[in-house]
């Protein structure tokens, strides 16, 4: 509940139950990206300015990769976290299917 109150102070309202990482990775990761950019005070390099949902597998994976790289450059210890760990299940399945089709 404390996380939900904190998110409301950032202007992200309507969250009653917070499930990590689903809540942060839903909506194409917009919540996670907005929170990190707000707290850092700068944009995350490599992310598109306009973030729209894409049916192309790998786009969200790449965006989470940029997020993790940014956080690690700022000192976060995330060597055990891979971008695919942050993907919603549907995106993860699309990514796996695209890898299977490529091989």
| Strand residues, percent | under 5%
Order of helices and strands: HHHHH
Question: Which structural category fits the helices and strands?
Answer: mainly alpha
Terminal residue distance: 44 Å
The low-confidence runs, each spanning 5 or more residues with pLDDT under 50, are none
Query: Which percent range fits the helix content?
Result: 40-55%
Radius of gyration: 14 Å
Query: Overall 3D geometry?
Result: globular
| Biggest β-sheet description | none
Name the quaternary structure.
single chain
The overall pLDDT average reads 77
Walk me through the topology:
Layout: H1 2-9, H2 22-25, H3 30-40, H4 59-73, H5 89-102
Overall description:
The protein contains 5 helices and no strands. The model has no long low-confidence stretch (mean pLDDT 77). It is mostly helical and 103 residues long. It has helices spanning 2-9, 22-25, 30-40, 59-73, 89-102. The relative contact order is 0.13.
